[in-house]
Sequence to fold (210 residues):
Amino acid sequence: MNDLREIYGDENVLVYFKPQGLETTSDHKKDTLENRVGGIAVHRLDVNTEGLVILAKTDKARTELEVAFKEGYIEKTYLALCFGKLRVSPITLVGYLAKDSAKGMVKVSKNKTVGSKPIKTAIRNVKDVKDFSLLEIKPVTGRTHQIRAHLHSIGIFIVGDSKYGDFKLNRMYDIKRQCLCATELKFNFPQTSFLKYLNKKHFIAKPTFF
Fold:
């Protein structure tokens, strides 16, 4: 986990690159991104997803950032190395996501089911690399495992994903790490927000797997 590094910091917020294998936050584990850097994570990356995470340094900043995520003032972009290729690019996927707490997974369906929530994911093909494709992904909604499960629902699998991936291909290529990275953060706070100065910031990080 030597890839942990600070990208930005001021009196209100921190932006860190979280390496794969490190929890963002946890009620059960002491070794988390929050505990290492001393901030309050206002969104999470799955433990096996690497990339940019925003943390608040004050309660005021935490409240403002939580509202910003809810209202869509913060745009996140991911890159994923995948098995399978898009038939159409760019494409915006819509559907419904339901949690299966017993399995610790989610399921995506086209139609609403009991307990499901709407999801929306914008995807663009960046380039094809032999048997793989590099996809740029912008989750319009921010549900648990949304990107991984939404891709799975159309027959595209993130390389190395142990829950929603193609297990046979992972074994065949001897890939043991998940190739998904949160690579960009952009801000569009309203002029009434004390964090509006972040609108001038654009944070970019490169995946370690590509």
In short: Residues 5-204 form a domain with the Pseudouridine synthase fold (CATH 3.30.2350.10). The mean pLDDT is 95. The chain has one domain: 5-204.
